[in-house]
TrEMBL record:
InterPro entries: AraC-bd, Homeodomain-like_sf, HTH-like, HTH_AraC, HTH_AraC-typ_CS, RmlC-like_jellyroll, Tscrpt_reg_AraC-type_HTH. It comes from Caldicellulosiruptor saccharolyticus (strain ATCC 43494 / DSM 8903 / Tp8T 6331). GO terms for molecular function: DNA-binding transcription factor activity; sequence-specific DNA binding. This is Transcriptional regulator, AraC family. It comes from the Bacteria. Keywords: DNA-binding, Transcription, Transcription regulation. The lineage of its organism: Bacteria, Bacillati, Bacillota, Bacillota incertae sedis, Caldicellulosiruptorales. The keyword DNA-binding applies. Residues 185-283 form the HTH araC/xylS-type domain.
């Protein structure tokens, strides 16, 4: 199973003593998408080449070669490959930049970003910032002796420029957005934990403390998918993992990921992947 980003991720990014990882395969290969998800870590997306579109907290961004995107802690984000992109996602806990004792860098700057009291502007053009991000990726790939020091150094300099050039703003103006995000996060977390069971949209709306109509409208506003489409796509991704990594039959996989009708599973799988699960399995085994 690969290490793609998931919803509220339960995977460890890096290690406990160096909580950072650089991901190269962020899109699901079968349909070139990254389903909306969220995590507590900060993220920097960078495109070395090609193009891709991303959605962060309901807003759309288009990245071309050598462009980047900042994803704040706790933001709901997803994307789609457009034209053969070479993407990278630098995902890290801001705590790796904190000192154990009294620390002005933590108290005055970084902790507020970690807690979403301050938000980094998602997209902007800045050559120096781009170069620093590219340097992190290069160092990560090459891993020279002492590379951890250099990676942390680059991150500190990036945040220096973000604050110095006023790309960081108070989140008070986005309080309404944060309330909306929390409601959708509760639904995403429930889907993540219960995708193999029947999921009732009425229950998701109840968890979000919203009417069914407003919940569905808000869910699509934030994720650009209906709740049903999202659940189906999430289940298909889980089915792909099972096809690749188990010997279960297609019928067994359908029930394992929450489809109670095999014909419907086959239909949804083909719409999402482009081939039936039987053909996909055959291609995987070849």
């Amino acid at each position: 199973m690969d290490e793609r980003l998931r919803l509220k991720e339960k995977v460890q990014h890096g290690s406990a003593v160096f909580p950072i990882n650089v991901y190269e395969k962020i899109f699901v290969h079968e349909n070139n998408t990254l389903l909306p998800h969220w995590h507590d870590e900060f993220e920097i997306v960078y495109l070395e080449k090609g193009t891709a579109s991303f959605r962060v907290d309901g807003k759309e961004y288009f990245l071309g070669p050598k462009q980047f995107l900042f994803v704040n802690c706790g933001s709901i984000h997803g994307g789609k490959a457009e034209d053969n992109p070479e993407p990278y996602a630098i995902v890290f806990s801001l705590s790796m930049l904190f000192s154990e004792g009294p620390d002005i860098c933590k108290s005055k700057y970084l902790q507020s970003v970690s807690e979403r009291k301050l938000l980094v502007q998602n997209s902007f053009e800045d050559e120096h910032t781009r170069e620093l991000i590219s340097n992190i990726i290069t160092v990560w790939k090459e891993k020279p002796k002492g590379y951890e020091l250099l990676v942390k150094g680059y991150l500190f300099v990036i945040f220096y420029y973000l604050f110095n050039k006023r790309y960081v703003t108070a989140s008070s103006t986005d309080r309404e957005l944060d309330l909306k995000l929390e409601k959708i996060k509760s639904a995403l977390d429930f889907i993540n934990s219960n995708y193999s069971s029947d999921i009732d949209i009425d229950l998701l709306a109840k968890l979000a403390n919203l009417s069914k109509f407003y919940f569905c409208r808000l869910f699509k506003e934030i994720t650009h998918l209906t709740p049903v489409d999202y659940i189906n796509k999430f289940r298909v991704e889980k089915a792909i993992e099972l096809i690749k990594n188990t010997n279960l039959s297609i019928s067994e996989i359908a029930f394992e990921v929450g489809f109670n009708n095999v014909s419907y599973f086959i239909k949804v799988f083909k719409e999402y992947v482009g081939v039936t699960p039987f053909k996909y399995k055959k291609n995987v085994l070849c």
